Amino acid sequence: MNFICQELIAPDSPIEPIVQNFGFSSLNTFIPAPQKVYGMTPAQYRRKHRNGNTMEKV
């Protein structure tokens, strides 16, 4: 999960190809994973951590 989330922070990278590169068939199959671990969707995680905040759970 940490590797995927680091990729989510990368600029100009669409979310769906990132999660597919890590073996998820679609964004819909990935969304529950970060919600369980971090309490937010991939898009929410991206916005929060691109703004310079640190990770809450690692």
UniProtKB/TrEMBL annotation:
Signal peptide: none annotated. Residues 1-48 form the HTH araC/xylS-type domain. InterPro entries: Homeodomain-like_sf (IPR009057), HTH_AraC (IPR018060). Keywords: Transcription, Transcription regulation. This is Helix-turn-helix transcriptional regulator. It comes from Paenibacillus tianjinensis.
